[in-house]
UniProtKB/TrEMBL annotation:
PANTHER family: NAD P H OXIDOREDUCTASE-RELATED, NAD(P)H DEHYDROGENASE [QUINONE] 1 ISOFORM 1. Residues 1-213 form the Flavodoxin-like fold domain. GO terms for molecular function: NAD(P)H dehydrogenase (quinone) activity. SUPFAM superfamilies: Flavoproteins. Belongs to the NAD(P)H dehydrogenase (quinone) family. Gene3D superfamilies: 3.40.50.360. InterPro entries: Flavodoxin_fold (IPR003680), Flavoprotein-like_sf (IPR029039), NAD(P)H_dehydrogenase_qn (IPR051545). This is NAD(P)H dehydrogenase (Quinone). Pfam families: Flavodoxin_2 (PF02525). It comes from Pseudonocardia parietis. Keywords: Oxidoreductase. Its EC number is 1.6.5.2. The keyword Hydrolase does not apply. The keyword Oxidoreductase applies.
Length: 261
């Protein structure tokens, strides 16, 4: 298995850094290949600019079409191309970060902004269904697996369904469903490390062992059962048909459930 490990933490000696190093050693020890995108160490530029695409500043900068044109014409910035090549070569992508302000660190959000471009990660037309695009379970990155690993300051109960911080599955929905599943990846249940500022040595050992187990089982882990866009469960306006999750609303309806008859 070829794994791309995208790491977004400014401190190598952090809890996240220690967990990553331990898990990478386990992967490599089992014969897997690990490629790294350590964004802070790389000095990754998270800001989308026209310079990424060799765009003429005299013309309006429409990011989607311009980036797609640059992809076709081979004029993308070298750092973006390098990351896309890593993704193409990967069987699985691990995205690791601390949960800051209920979201990703800006440097990681900018990695997705600059790398997941039109005609590479999205905007792929469905040849069998004109007018529809391959997304939410389909697309150029279908067949690859994704695993989110995050550390959070809040304790586990506060990240639960009735916790003040919000349910962690909903906090991660934009990343797991709206980004990774959107581009076709099979998204595995995340590894969440709560109370990250208060982890004891014993808790670290247990967490490291759990993460080792999760990364080694990437090929066999059952992915999150998100509904696919083109599986017949959504209407032409991409609204879930009434027979699925009847009477329900919110993010949870996009998880597969048995339809009523």
């Amino acid at each position: 298995m070829n794994v791309l490990w995208v790491f977004a933490h400014p401190e190598q000696r952090s809890l996240g850094g220690a967990l990553r190093d331990d898990a990478v050693a386990a992967l490599e020890g089992a014969g897997h290949q690990v490629t790294h995108s350590d964004l802070y160490a790389m000095g990754w530029n998270p800001v989308v600019t026209a310079a990424d695409y060799g765009h003429d500043a005299e013309e309006r900068f429409r990011v989607g079409p311009v980036s797609a044109s640059a992809l076709r014409n081979g004029t993308l910035s070298e750092d973006v191309v390098a990351e896309q090549m890593k993704i193409k070569s990967a069987d699985a992508v691990i995205v690791q970060f601390p949960l800051w302000w209920y979201s990703l660190p800006a440097i990681l959000k900018g990695w997705f902004d600059r790398v997941f471009l039109k005609d590479f990660a999205y905007g792929i037309e469905d040849p069998s269904n004109p007018g529809r695009t391959l997304r939410y379970g389909d697309g150029n990155l279908a067949g690859k697996r994704a695993l989110v690993v995050t550390t959070a300051g809040g304790r586990a109960p506060a990240l639960g369904p009735r916790g003040l911080n919000g349910d962690i599955s909903e906090l991660l929905f934009a990343l797991q469903h709206g980004t990774l599943f959107y581009v076709g990846m099979e998204v595995l249940p995340p590894v969440v490390v709560p109370g990250a500022n208060r982890v004891s040595d014993e808790e670290f050992r247990a967490t490291a062992a759990a993460l080792r187990e999760r990364v080694l089982s990437i090929p066999s882990t059952e992915p999150i059962a998100f509904r696919t866009q083109n599986g017949g469960e959504y209407d032409d306006d991409l609204v879930l048909h009434d027979r699925y999750a009847p009477g329900m609303a919110g993010l949870g309806v996009h998880l597969q459930q048995e339809p009523t008859t």
